[in-house]
Amino acid sequence: MKQTSVVTVFLCHKGKVCLVRRSSNVRTHKGRWSGISGYLEGDPNEHFMVELQEETSLTSYEYTLVRQAKPLVIHDDRDEQLWCVHPFLCEIHDPKMIRLDWENTELEWIEPEEMQNRDTVPGLWEVYETVSRSPLEKEVNDFQHQIRHDRDSGARQIAICALDFLKGVCETTNAASTRTILDDIEFVCKQLGTIRPSMAIISTTLELLFRDICSVRSLDSKAALKKIPRIIENHRKEMDLSAELAVRHIRDILKEGSAVLVHSYSSSINAALNILKEKDCSLVVTESRPCLEGRRTARIASEIGLRVILVTDALAAHALQGVDTVLLGVDSIEQDGSVINKAGSRQIAVAAHAAGIKVYYLGEMRKICIHEEPVELEEHDSEEVWEDAPAGILVRNVYFDRTAPRYISGIILEKDVVEPYQIKKIASSLGAFSRDISHKGFHLL
Fold it and tell me: What predicted TM-score, i.e. pTM, was given to this entire model?
């Protein structure tokens, strides 16, 4: 089949798309609905403007290029033709400025989905989808599904995956203007920021990141797409540094030869294991039901030479009899100083407090909730607790719980070990994460 290259331009305004009906004087697809189309002559990045001016009388001052997609090959079985379509999406400033020439007889502004019910030129809907936000929305939906069902990664790891995802968005985007790029990134940040509501590090990191990314607003799209990945990479480096800075305070908390109880699996706690080994500590690890991720912590600790006892969650209070310190990870820190962590953390903290045992939560500033609303405690599939439970039994699988400030001896952050009442003041200073990406230092409070 012969292949012919064309450009197709979709005009949009306030969420609607303009379709034009091809006249009886054109060579192909007479009377069918289309975008503004024409045979490609020269560079498609220049020729689409020529087609727009010829067919609509619009000049480049009367519209803004919003998106541009890679060429798409469309099979036209009726005419035994392959069309190599170069798609463009432009936002028109004033639809009244359109003046059709002889190639099209009428125009209509429609909701994009209506395109599928029209008698259009071949592949028009497929072409439109490539130059809309649909590819990004599909990527986000797939990634949301992935992290929603991730039972192996901790909050920090998921936040890092979100940063990596955003870098990938910059590489594959069809956005052709800086405003569109920022709109897309804001969309991604909002969608990902709410997918694991008990893990504040995700939403806080994405909100702080977007504040920094907004610094590209005055740049053209090419410069913006060059700068944004560097901003993202700086945030990732800062996260790595944050973990190192927080963990070092454990040396001041633990006495030589201490017995320490930890709960569940936490990347922060795992980062502290070498310090526990250095101080000749022993470890009591809870299984962390229902997924038993505490076994992973126990295995890692044992492999580096720590003395490890594994107990069931139900035995945690009893196991405290031989423990000097409780060290727990953090998924979220609320502004009143409450801490959200894997279910079971609260009862351990309450029991330890009653026994006079210090309870420390190992976190970082990015795990502090920027907003004051209470954190939603995630609940997941009941089958993880009891597969095929008898009818009439409601099985609850709440993954996280909330420890009140009065049961917490200290929250370990990058700069220091702080008391819960100090968190609200620290939360108000989180804007200090923003900085010029050209600065090589990382200034954490």
Answer: 0.86
